[in-house]
Amino acid sequence: MSMFCYQCQEAAKGKGCSVKGVCGKSEEVAKLQDLLIYTVKGISEIVVKGELEAKELGEVNHEVLRSLFMTITNANFDGDAFVKEIKKMTVLRNQLRDMVDAANKKNNPGFFQKLLGLKKEQTGKKINVSALHDAARFETATKAEMLKKAANVGILATKNEDVRSLRELITYGVKGLAAYAEHALNLGKEDLSLYGFIYEAMAATLDDALSADDLVALTLKTGQFGVTAMALLDGANTGKYGNPEITEVNIGVKKNPAILISGHDLTDLEQLLEQTKGTGVDVYTHSEMLPAHYYPAFKKYDNFVGNYGNAWWKQLEEFESFNGPILFTTNCIVPPKSDEVRGRIFTTGASGHPGCTHIEADGSGKKDFSKVIEMAKRLKAPTEIETGKIVGGFAHEQVFALADKVVDAVKSGAIKKFFVMAGCDGRMKSRDYYTEFAQKLPQDTVILTAGCAKYRYNKLDLGDIGGIPRVLDAGQCNDSYSLALIALKLKEVFELNDINELPIAYNIAWYEQKAVIVLLALLHLGVKNIHLGPTLPAFLSANVANVLIDTFGIGGIDSVDADMAMFLGA
Ligand code: SF4
Ligand code: SF3
């Protein structure tokens, strides 16, 4: 087998991609991603066994986030970027290892502190480095050596199917958590406990002494830190850009040349808006960037004019008709088919694609988007593909402001049930289920959504209940945190003991690893009976799936009519 990956919902044949990713990931990139993750595991083992403190590990912490984020589905297809990252991470790893090496004679005060940019010299615990896992010791110099090494360290290197399943479930949760932590970090917000947990979890995936029960416990702990990461990002976003408010977003186009910005990073958007101000170039959001329109801070930009297109998987045709440059701040990239479109795509942060221009931040986090703006000026304005408006902005504070109205509607019976339909969209035909499900929901139900899953129904006219729209969009996938806060608030208002007594059903669509951390976070918050579709993850072994079913009532989806009857208790 040339490669093996089963981290997303579109894993080939529901089992795993073994020749080339359905996502477009090549064998080479898949292997380099495996080796990068292996290196992160090695670093984690050194930190844990050497008892190094996350609070002193500044640059290492940040690079670990970046490495994990780069391996998320559809974030980065650039083999050279992975080679560079593996080299960087092995250098950091070796420096950390030397620092804890009991046999290291170079006990030169300040040496490692300077080398690693640490805040203070770490003494840690002296360990015998020859006893460390291979992940903390292997050496590769060239891409060819990396690919050779990677062939033996991927997912299938763990032979026991259940242990493999749990190790991967934890790893994918940690990838999602790292992505959210990186967005918060870009806004200057960190929570050191998150790094400590990442090291603990990634090191644990190397530890053959851990039992399946230990790994189940660690899976739940991953959800706990998922909540921490989402709360951190929520605070970072709302602290800087204000609380999202009800907003109508134009989905048609204007006459100016324009830039399309995709992905999840709001600091990138802010910098782009600042740099395009007064240039005659408009900015449109794409896919997961749509919720940026809900933040008060971005409303002051006259050239921030609307949202273009739909969820990520429709980008091949939509980027053709957009005509202008596209800036990816994160996933989800679909490898472009034509040189013309590839030449118009820019990437930044953890995202990347060969043939596209990558823009890095300078030392202070500033990014120079002048090349993108210059390109926009030379190109045609976008071609209109639809007209109208969509409404969103129902994050926690906005919904709390409407709490009386919502509670009255529930008490009067005008709202019978809420359906959390957050998560991801994807290209599988079976996802038509979600459009049909939304359409068939009775008029006395409300959909709570977040993430790109919303594109399956956010342009349908589903009406409102006494002025409350029947689709309440809280924002990006990380804003599923808002939906959890809303549920907790309703539990408090209705004086219930258990969040599961609320009239809320969970019918969630997943695709990539951010959805994994959202799911684990909801489990940590005590939410039961979540239905997950369109298929259950290929990485869940039968036994691990059974644990989730027995402990949390997790289920898949059936036909729309059968599920409707099940959810509505008919
Ligand atoms: Fe396949 Fe998904 Fe992995 Fe891509 S990310 S290789 S589609 S399982
Ligand atoms: Fe979508 Fe990629 Fe997951 Fe952030 S943009 S939800 S799939």
TrEMBL record:
It is found in: Cytoplasm. The modification Cysteine persulfide is found at residue 424. It catalyses: A + NH4(+) + H2O = hydroxylamine + AH2 + H(+). PANTHER family: HYDROXYLAMINE REDUCTASE (PTHR30109:SF0). The keyword Calcium does not apply. Its cofactor is [4Fe-4S] cluster; hybrid [4Fe-2O-2S] cluster. Catalyzes the reduction of hydroxylamine to form NH(3) and H(2)O. Binds 1 [4Fe-4S] cluster. GO terms for molecular function: hydroxylamine reductase activity. This is Hydroxylamine reductase. Pfam families: Prismane (PF03063). Hybrid [4Fe-2O-2S] cluster binds at residues 264, 288, 332, 424, 452, 477, 512, 514. The keyword ATP-binding does not apply. [4Fe-4S] cluster binds at residues 5, 8, 17, 23. CDD domains: HCP (cd01914). Keywords: 4Fe-4S, Cytoplasm, Iron, Iron-sulfur, Metal-binding, Oxidoreductase. Its EC number is 1.7.99.1. It comes from Acetobacterium wieringae. Belongs to the HCP family.
